[in-house]
């Protein structure tokens, strides 16, 4: 018998639809170790970053997608996702059309995030974000986000980190996680393309000490402008929440020796501001500091002939 095409989900009683709706709850999503990604571009970023695709859900009446009027890069994104969804044979859902599942339009609106569906919803296995799984290159440039609450800010920071070539972003005691749909959307999928890990504040500090990474902290009250701050070698740029800042948690780090119990002060750095406003959005602050670090590190490398 010939194989049937992709199955069509058309009932709210379907267990897959019920499960997908529940996956929009952050707690259920974390327990399930699944990630839902909205949009072709974001899904393509996850796939090209090696995240395991489980299923691709597309609107019943918009399949196959019309790519005649799309820009070349948009066509590439769709082709990447469609290939990944259709080239692995029978899916874990039991349908014979690969990992592609068509969904009736009203149900697509139920499983998509927000008021403006992005044309596709992809289900992935949640990547391992533990600190002990994070591999660092020599002399890495890291961004550490401490206590950031808003997923939109987290996503914008990842977008900047991807553009600037940051080696990894580490979340320290953050209320938001990188797989929040707003974080994924505002990052344009960069939460998958940039290496990342998350842990408690204490775990992150231990990780930085273990890997002998110097830390500079963005502090409004610091007297040292970023122009004069050294930013070479293994470096972590630390930014805190807009509402609470960094507080006393990040004033020093333990010395990286077995015999010493001393702690080394963390260098504070200030972004010069000459207007009436005394602070910037945390994603803007992170971008300014990261690009200043890239500028200095690039200039030093060119001076040494590397």
Brief characterization of the structure:
With 306 residues, the chain is α/β, with parallel strands linked by helices. The chain has helices at 15-22, 26-32, 40-48, 72-86, 105-111, 151-164, 181-187, 190-193, 201-210, 282-303; strands at residues 8-9, 34-38, 53-59, 100-103, 121-125, 141-146, 168-172, 196-199, 214-218, 235-240, 252-254, 263-265, 267-269.
Main pleated-sheet profile: 6 strands, parallel
pLDDT < 50 runs, ≥5 residues: 89-97
Percent helix range: 25-40%
Question: H/E order of the elements?
Answer: EHHEHEHEHEEHEHHEHEEEEEH
Distance linking N and C termini = 62 Å
* Overall radius of gyration: 22 Å
Average pLDDT value? Answer: 87
Strand content: 15-25%
What's the β-strand tally? 13
DSSP summary: helix tally = 10
Q: Which shape, going by the Cα principal axes?
A: elongated
Helix and strand content put the structural class at alpha/beta
Main β-sheet, spatial strand arrangement: 8-7-6-10-9-13
Overall description:
Strand 6 (141-146), helix 6 and strand 7 (168-172) form a beta-alpha-beta unit. The longest helix is centred in the last third of the chain and has 22 residues, at 282-303. With 306 residues, the chain is an alpha/beta fold. The strands form 3 sheets. The protein has a 6-stranded parallel beta sheet with strand order 8-7-6-10-9-13, sandwiched between helices. A 5-stranded mixed beta sheet has the order 1-4-3-5-2. A two-stranded antiparallel ribbon has the order 11-12. The protein has helices at 15-22, 26-32, 40-48, 72-86, 105-111, 151-164, 181-187, 190-193, 201-210, 282-303, and strands spanning 8-9, 34-38, 53-59, 100-103, 121-125, 141-146, 168-172, 196-199, 214-218, 235-240, 252-254, 263-265, 267-269. It contains 10 helices and 13 strands. The chain starts with 7 loop residues before the first strand and ends with a helix.
């Amino acid at each position: 018998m010939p194989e049937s095409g992709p199955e069509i989900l058309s009932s709210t009683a379907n267990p897959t639809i019920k499960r997908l709706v529940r996956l929009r709850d952050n707690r259920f999503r974390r327990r399930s170790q699944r990630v839902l990604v909205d949009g072709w571009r974001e899904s393509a970023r996850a796939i090209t970053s090696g995240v395991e695709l489980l299923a691709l859900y597309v609107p019943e009446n918009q399949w196959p997608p019309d790519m005649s009027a799309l820009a070349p890069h948009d066509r590439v994104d769709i082709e990447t996702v469609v290939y990944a969804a259709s080239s692995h044979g029978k899916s874990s859902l039991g349908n014979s059309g690969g990992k592609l599942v068509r969904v009736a339009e009203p149900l697509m609106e139920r499983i998509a995030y927000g008021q403006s569906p992005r044309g596709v919803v992809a289900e992935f296995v949640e990547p391992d974000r533990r600190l002990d799984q994070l591999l660092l290159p020599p002399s890495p440039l890291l961004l550490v986000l401490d206590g950031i609450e808003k997923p939109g800010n987290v996503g914008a920071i990842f977008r900047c980190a991807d553009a600037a070539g940051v080696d990894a972003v580490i979340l320290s005691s953050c209320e938001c996680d990188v797989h929040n749909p707003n974080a994924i959307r505002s990052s344009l999928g960069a939460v998958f393309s940039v290496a990342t890990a998350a842990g408690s504040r204490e775990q992150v500090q231990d990780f930085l000490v273990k890997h002998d990474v110097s830390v500079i902290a963005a502090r409004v009250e610091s007297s040292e402008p970023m122009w004069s701050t050294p930013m070479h070698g293994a470096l972590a740029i630390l930014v805190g929440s807009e509402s609470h800042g960094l507080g006393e948690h990040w004033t020093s780090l333990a010395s990286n020796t077995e015999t010493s119990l001393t702690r080394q002060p963390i260098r504070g750095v200030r972004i010069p501001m000459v207007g009436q406003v005394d602070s910037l959005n945390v994603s803007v602050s992170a971008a300014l500091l990261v690009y200043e670090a890239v500028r200095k590190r690039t200039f030093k490398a060119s001076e040494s002939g590397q």
